[in-house]
Structure formats: structure tokens, C-alpha cells
Amino acid sequence: MNVAASCRTSLRISLALCLVTGICFAQELRARLKTAAAANSEVELQRIESTAPRSEEAALAKLVRGYLRLQAKDYNAALLAIDETVITRQSNLGDYALYYRAQALQGAGRIEEAERAYVRTAEMYPTSALARTAILQAAGLGMGRGAYQAIVGYVDKLAAANDGTALKFKAEALEKMGKTEEAAAAWRKIYFEAPQAPEASEVSNKLTALGAAPAITGATAQMMRARSDKLYQNNLWVIAGQSYDQLVRLFPLAADPEAYLRGGISYYKAKSYQQALNLLINVRSRSIKDQTDAIYYRGLSYKALRQEAQMFQALADLRRIAPNSPQLGNLLFQIGKGYETSQPTTAQTYYEQLFREAPRAESADEAHFWRAWRAHEAKDYATSARLLIEHVAEYGDVTDNRGKAAFWGARDAERAGDRARALTMYKALLPRYGAGWYGYNSERHIEEIKRTGVKEMAPEADAVLSRAVAKLQVNPPVVETMNPADEERLTKARSLVLINLAQAALSELESARNRAANSPRINLQIAQIYRARNENVSAVNVLKRAYPDYGQALVSEMPRDAWDVFYPLGWWSTIKEEAKRNNIDPYMIVGLIRQETIFNPTAVSRANAIGLMQLLPSTGRSVAKRYSLGGGAISSADLFNPILNIQLGTAYVAEQIRQFGRFEYVAAAYNGGPSRVSRWLVELPAGDIEEWVDAIPLSETRAYVQGVYRNARQYKRLYDEQGRFRPEVGDGK
Predict the structure, then answer these.
(1) CATH number for region 484-559
(2) What pairs with residue 610 in β-bridges?
(3) Domain spanning 281-472, CATH class
């Protein structure tokens, strides 16, 4: 190698080392910042500022240090720390720097400066999540010092956009200036253009105090209609119904069919059925949709009032006017549903009509499953097998009962003697439901059928079976719906989480979610904030918006971060050790913990069950005494110790296994109580375990047992023996 080549090689190595070193330093700095912010360590935050003064981390350290001083009401120190110029230049949280500065100025009594800072926040960062609050804060300060003309200017844009709070500030400022007519006009604007705002409830009294006429005086039909529509759009059904009613009485010539229709729907949803009918019978529209909607809600109102003859007339009217309308199917469903308990044969009659006349109606799947399950409960297995498999074939993409229908369709086919069809359905369940209760039981039945020498049926030999198998293989796709304009909010939220300002981060994310309720990215970030707080139930509920069918997802179909929210794992070494000591599958203990608390060690139930495994203090004390755990004498507070809680809970589960044998019975006892399970073992079917579980009379306990098994199998496919994600989970991401 010549000298030049050697120099080039050395240079490349040096550059690579510099790059790696720089990345490592940045990562270390970020980790230090996160730790310091979480610990509220102002000393360490200052070290970060001095170590890398031009870094983003230094700017964020200044911001959080100023925020800590602000919370401590050390306002002058907060002002010194919050260097707006540096924070704006070196981070994406300039709006927070300016807003917190305004708060510090306000706390320090420098009111006019604070007021200007709030206004500047909104002017410099008009799309910020803080912009509206900043303007309203400025208006509040202006009101306190009598700057009424300034207030009108501050809130002008918000008031023009019909913001109720801004309009209230404007009205009160105008009143203070002696401009009572303009003040009354602002209050009237709230009444007509922001009727959904909390301030709308003040309008009547405020107008009276001003000596002004009631809001409705001088109102036009257009004003009344705008008010009614806004109430309707905000689901304020009682007031919306009243508003439309007032509109059609005061302006009968201007009231169009839609006003009568919306008023009737509003009254129906407010459970004011006679008032609903009074408006709905006046819907006379050339629009077939308006006509069918009016007849449908008339039918529902008659049903609620138990006026059957009129309800059936509404059904006849729908058939005559629009036999292909979706509302025909919806009304047939509602009529049938009303008879399910009292007259099931009559209910089935209407459901049969629904399947013939509107098989794709919105609730047709629910009606179809009810009919199939009725045959199952009657032990008409040939019929129930046919209907349940048909349910998967026809409604597998919309039903909430896909797995249940598929499993019991297979089981009933097996009991009806069609083992080949049953085997095909059991196997078709496994890809999506293998990690659940139905997959667990399907595997057992597959082995039993195989031992008889029966081969599975080729799906293509039967069109319905073929469609059912195909429907079982897919999950609805998860689509990102986030507006690209909200990318900045997600970036800000990450910065805020880094410096332990989680509530501010949630505000940013909620603002983004208002425009994309089911966004996977937005909901995952929100869920991770809850997860970091040990609010795991909230985390799961948030993320279900984006992944409603996560239980049937393949391990590669969701990112690891999402799986971590749905199935968190902690204290694995302790769980393994205690499970081994008590001869229990550790994944069953994990499944039980997930069902109880989703791994929240601070959980306390309404019955005062405590900790990870939700032990009652009396149970914890008795188990501790029997096995000399925790010194043999423990307090309720000791149950918050995760390790002790696992030791006690696992020992208690082992006792239940010795008493009941099968883990299904143990799970039922853990939730429903040992005495109930002892009784159920006598009273409930003694055949296959799934029959016994399905017959449990308490729906909560029934779901609990199935949930424990589903959780255990999910954890087993997600995590290896060391408690780490398996390589294939989230495609390794």
C-alpha cells in the first residue's frame, strides 16, 4: 500500500470513529437528560447545559429547569433559566419557552409583560397547541387591569371563529366599555353560533342583566337553523330537538324537511318519543333517503312507545317506498331484537325477513349469529354447524363473533358427525386464533380427530366452507390516517416526554388525534406515555383504537412497541422461579397477571385487592403465614411489593390447582371465587372443558377464563424463555 492510499484509509477510519463517537455522545447526552428530568435534578441539568451548550439537549435542559423553578414559584429563577432565544434556536419547543416565560412573568407580578408574552406566543406560533390558551390568558390579565379595548383585539380571531370563551371575554370587555349593544350582540353570537360551548348556558342571564331582549328576539330562520344544526352535530340531543322544534314553530314556511327530520331524530335519541313523532310525521321530502330515515325513526319511536300497529305500518311503508333501503333491514333488526327474550320465535321470523330482504344491512351479522346460536343452544348441531360456518363465510369481515362462530361451527359439525368439515375449520382457525382460547381448544380437537384417521375436507369442495376458511385468514388492514401537517406535534411530544413533561405531550398528541382518531402512530405515542406511568389499562384502551383486532394479528403485523403495550412483561425471573417452585407453567401465571392488572404493581380494586396479582389482604396474610413468606406476617402495604405479591399469588394458585386440578377451574375460582366453582363443578356440563367454561353463568368469569388462556398463549408466542421478544415479533423492529 502506498503512502497516499494509507492516508486515505486512516482518514476514513478517523471519520468513522468520529461519527460513531459523536453518535454515542449524543445518545449518552440524551439519556442523561431523560434521567435528570425524571429525577428533577437541576444540578445535572445545568451540567448538561455546560457540557454541550449548543446542543438540543442543552436547550431542553434549560426549558425543564425553568419549568421546575416555575412549579416551585421561584419566578425570577425561572426567568433566568428559560432563555427563549437559545431554546427556540436549538429545539422545537420555542412556543413552550415563551409560554412558560409568560407564566413566570405573571407569577412575578409583571402583568403587562406577561400579557405581551402570551400574545406573542399566539402570534409567533399560531398553530401551537398553546396558542388558544395563551390568548385567553392574555385576555384574563387584560381584564384584571382594565385593558378592555386590548382584550377585544386579543380575542378577535378566536371570536370570529365562534370560540365561546373568546366571545365571552369580548362581551364582558365591551360591557365594561359601556358598549352594551355590542356586548349583547356577542352574547347572542354565542347562543346562535357557539351553542355547544359551556358559555351558552350563561346567555339568558347575561342578556337580562344587560337589559337586552332575549336572544331569540329578532332572530332569523337562518340563525335558528345554524344553531340547531350545531347542536345536532355535537350530539346535544335534548337541546337540539327543542331548537328544531322552535324553528319549525316560529318559521314554518322556512323549515325544510331536513329540519323536521333532524329534530325528530334528536328527540328520539333524547328518548322523547312522542315529540319525535310530532316532527317526523311532518317530513315531506322528495329525497328517498329523507323519507326512509323519517319512517325508520317513526318505527323506532312507535316501538319504544309499544304501539305495535303503528310500528308495523312504518315497516310496511318502508317496503312500499324503498324496498332496497338499508333502513328496511335496520328496522327489521330492531323489531326482531325487541322480541328476542319474550318471543324468540317471532324474533326469528323478522330476522328471516331481514336475511331475505336486506342481507347486508348494518346489523344483519348480529341477527344471523343470534339465529345460529339459538340452534346451538337447542343442540340442533347439524343446523347450528351449517349456520355458524355460514356466519363466518358471509359476515367474517364485519362480525364480532368470527372466532366464536368458527370454533363452535367446527365443534357442532364434529358432533353432527361431519368430522372432515370440522377438521378443516379447526385448522383454519389456527393462524389467527391459535394464540387464543379457541385456538387452544381447536388444537386438542384436531389431535382427537386425526387419531380416528379422518382427513380434512378440501375447502374448494364446498363454496360456503371455502369462503369461511378464506375469511378466517385475514384481518382488516391497519391504515395510517395521520395528517402530515401533524408530524410536528408528534416530534414535539417526543421532546416533551424526554424532559418529563408528559401532560404537555398528551395535549400535543390529543390535538393531532382530533383529526385522526384511529392513527396507529398517534395512538401508540399516547399509549406509551400511559405505559410509562404504569397506567397499562389506559394504554391498552388507547391503542385498541388503532389495532382493534390485535388479538388476531400475526406477530409480524404490528411493531414491537405496540406488542409491548398490549402484552407488557415484568419480573420474569421471579415469575419463572416461583412457577418452577410450585410446578406451574410460568406463562399461565403471566396470563393471569395480565388479565388482573396488565402488570400494574400499584393496582387496587374496588374490593381492595392489591398489586400485580390482586390479592386481598386477608388472602395475602393467610398464604404468607402458611408458607412463611415475607417473614410470615405482612401488611396490606407489603402487597404492593411485586416480588412478594408474585410469591404469594403463585403459592395461592398452586393451592387452587391442588384443590381443583385443571387450570381452567383455577382461573374461574380466582375470579369468581372457590365456592362458586365447587358448585359449578356439580351443576355445569361435565363434558369438554370448553362446554363447561361456556356454561359459566357469570359473563365476567367466563371471559376471564378465556382471557387468561389467550394471554398465556400470546406471551408464549411473543417472548422466549429469557423474557425477550422472539426475533420474528414485529419483524424484529
Answers:
(1) 1.25.40
(2) 604, 615
(3) mainly alpha
